Amino acid sequence: MVEFYDTTLRDGSQAEGVAFSVEDKLIIIDELDKLGIRYIEGGYPGSNPKDIEFFKRAKDMQLDTAVIVPFGSTRYPTYSPDTDPNLSALLETGARIVTIFGKSWRIHATDVLRVTAEENLELIKSSVSYLVENGREVIYDAEHFFDGYADDPEYALETLRAATESGAKCLVLCDTNGGRLPLEIQEGVKAALNAFSLPIGIHTHNDAGMGAANAVLAVQVGANHIQGTFNGYGERCGNANLASIIPTVQLKLGIQCISDEQLQRITDVSRLISELANLPHDERQAYVGRSAFAHKGGLHIDAIRKNRLTYEHIEPEKVGNSQRILVSDQSGRGTIMKKIEKEYPDLDKNSPQVLELFNSLKQAEHDGYQYEAAEASFELLTHKVFNGYESFFQQLGFRVIIEKFTDHSMRSEATVKVTTPDKSTTHTAADGDGPVNALDTALRKALEQFYPELHQVRLMDYKVRVLDTKAGTGSKVRVLIEAGDGVNSWRTVGVSENIISASFDALIESFEYKLYKDNK
């Protein structure tokens, strides 16, 4: 059995650009508990008001699987254990299990703590003993273990012995600098396993791009406790990513750590943590990224139509993800067939409708459209070709005025003219924070009286891409809009030399898609 120890809320929050509020932390803990994570590291108790409040509120949480663990260090050299503020803060949390780290590398003892190698061993012994004597179970993180082992194997193991003899319940070997290679990790883990009968854990960083690989290798040679963060958040290049390690251990090594149903939640948990961190989700992450099971090349798509295993190493549904077929200028008719086969099972790639769609797609992408990330626009295009789909309204034109005043404030005003379902022409105007916001508001004023469901639609993301930088300010741009209605989200695209026109086209399609899906 392998147990997972999440340190997103402590080590992960040390990443550049990551900061979790107390509320964020409580939400994440609840999700990790449902996922089946055994230990959740909450942070340094007493280090700041936010963590003090967190540990007070976390005491009242009712968890099914997880244990919230405070984190600290061995005592400071100038304090005795019973007067050390760090150890006192750990005890004051009331947590049954605590984690402390100590130095495994001689140069950290001598150059950082300014103590001798023997004095460092005493710091470890007295700190672990004090916590155990006060009724705590201690997870001991051997900081820089693999660097220390490479420098002086005997001393690195001696630091582990100091923790073991003092009552630690688990020894966690840390590649704190993240620079050690797999065979070095293997050697260090084997040495610890041969020397001690305690559970051996692994904590790796990603500075050489091997954090997850090193953690999995440690499990393969006998480690049974893995520390990491979700999405690989962490200082410098980040920590080993639990979002990839957990599926690898369970699906590749065949070690059942959480239930199959819990594993199916891992993509959603990964995305939620990205959202709470206020960072874009890394869509190229293994297992949990949108691109993890996305196929673009025509030969690949043709192969997975015949057998998914040809280009998918697992079934994406096992991790709560899904297969995606990307339609692009590299696509053949086989790609289009894979994309539409569920809705149009009677067509083949030589059908006149498929040929028409194929040619329409090629022309659109020649004009700058790209449907890989705008699947709603592709779906609308498909139904226009196949079904003679008619829009719910027709845009007849728009105008935008942007004013800047002497106090440097700005105002945008938009007017739009559309043909509504009763075949009349509606002309509306609205102000906005910017031109796109003004167009959005004016369009709603014209349409919501006929289609009240559009009131649910909200702009979630807006991206602009310049397509030909050589043309300077006259370049054609592609605008991608992500919208949602509280239940589903979708993306649409617009292209023009005029950024406002491209934005309006994408906005129009976003509203069209909502109406199309609701009336399908």
The CATH class assignment of the largest domain is Alpha Beta
Q: Portion of residues in helices?
A: 25-40%
Question: The CATH topology of the largest domain is what?
Answer: TIM Barrel
CATH superfamily of the largest domain: Aldolase class I
How many individual helices? 18
Total individual domains:
2
Query: What distance lies between the first and last C-alpha atoms, to the nearest angstrom?
Result: 49 Å
Integer average pLDDT: 90
Strand order of the largest sheet: 1-2-3-4-5-6-7-8
Largest beta-sheet details:
8 strands, parallel, barrel
* Poorly predicted regions: none
Number of strands: 16
- The 3D shape can be described as elongated
CATH architecture assignment of the largest domain = Alpha-Beta Barrel
